[in-house]
Fold this protein.
Amino acid sequence: MPSSTVRPVLAVLAVLAAAAPAAALSRRELACQAAIARAGRVYVTRELAHHARCWISSVQGRPCGGEHEEQDPTARHEKYVRRLLRRCRGVTLARLGGNGCVARSADAASLADCVIATHADAVDALLSAQFGSR
């Protein structure tokens, strides 16, 4: 290997070796991270599908939902997010890293509030992009 290639490679290796290793996350912290990812994905998927069906129904002159729906789907989706994020109880959220909801939340309840609010905004933006404003 020419010396002009070796020097930059050695410099990168030296920087990587000098970098402090990140503290490994515990099983509870990893479970919390997985729950956050799942909660966000499931909430957006279900809310987008529900509101898209409602929008299409309203365009067709039909009411949103059906007689068989006992509970508001959005309330059911929020309840699911809160249940999933119970896995974050007792976890120091700041250790998970990032600057999203985990950085702004003190506990699992405020984390759930943040995830629901930010993801609801994302669903609104997606619906607006998909269907336009009503």
Summary: Residues 8-21 have pLDDT under 50 and may be disordered. The chain is about 65% helix and 0% strand. The radius of gyration is 22 Å. Residues 26-64+72-131 form one domain.
